[in-house]
Amino acid sequence: MKQAAPGRPKDLEKRAAILQAGKRLFPRQGFDGTSMDAIAAEAGVSKLTVYSHFTDKETLFKSVIEAKCEEQLPPELFLADLQGPIRGQLLTIARAFFALITAEESIALHRMMTSQAQPTKLAQLFWEAGPKKLQAAFEAFLQAEVDGGQLEIPEVWRATSQFFCLLKGELHARMMCGCSEPFCETATEDHINATVDMFLRAYSPCRGAA
Prior knowledge:
Elements: H1 8-29, H2 36-43, H3 47-53, H4 57-72, H5 86-102, H6 104-114, H7 120-129, H8 131-147, H9 156-177, H10 185-203
Helix pairs in contact: 1-2, 1-4, 1-6, 2-3, 4-7, 5-9, 5-10, 8-9, 9-10
InterPro entries: Homeodomain-like_sf, HTH-type_TetR-like_transc_reg, HTH_TetR, TetR_C_Proteobacteria
Pfam families: TetR_C_7, TetR_N
Domain HTH tetR-type: 12-72
């Protein structure tokens, strides 16, 4: 039996360590303030190893955003289960998304992207690696639910945007401004349930049914 090439698991471990280092350093120090030397030191690898996995800092940054999003909202979360209740599926996605956007590191990255000092290229990398991919996955999920008769949505792309904007709500805006008060788990759950129920009232085949 052919054995796996030696060193391959170690390479995967090093790549994971580099991504974890990026997740810690980019939100804390910003893009410009994070060097590849710092990433290498944080990951416990050589700078050459960092470059062998990620050709430049922009590629590493994009990969960090993708990894963080997939960690919180894995692709299987968006697989439509037409046999199960649509409300349960939406709640699962909503909870994962809300946890992602309100995490301390996510708020820090979002502030960095909205800073006027940041170059357009970096903001575009962030958008394509994070929000754009998540919206595409959710749009495909909604389309599958529409095709299966669970939802009735004339413009799926618009409903996708509405869902995520509703979930962000006032709390995310306050967190971005740095003026939010501590919020309890019950308040968060109430907000998520209210958002999902409003979405279903708008797009259920029988209006008002959840």
